Amino acid sequence: MATPLIIGVGAVTAAVAARHLMRNGALGFGKKVGQELAKGGFKSKMDRAEAIEILGLKDTVAGRAKLRDAHRQIMLANHPDRGGSPYLASKINEARDLIEKLERKS
Known about the structure:
Blueprint: H1 2-23, H2 33-37, H3 48-55, H4 64-78, H5 86-105
Helix pairs in contact: 3-5, 4-5
């Protein structure tokens, strides 16, 4: 009865120790793992590259149908009426508007 309990406590202790070592960069990963994954957040002024990344489009000129479809799919998943974030919805709409504005200019 005591053996499974000892094994469980040992596994949890090993996992916590490994997590601590990884976060501090002591296991030879170079940078800290938490900093290496991704920088979160949005730029204060959205540019074309960020808008394309938000909508999941390729860097080439997207047609109106592709832009509309990409925007629709993302908004279905992130719409505030369906439990999504109003902030994310506004950023998605801003990305669509920016790309449409840039396409009109060219």
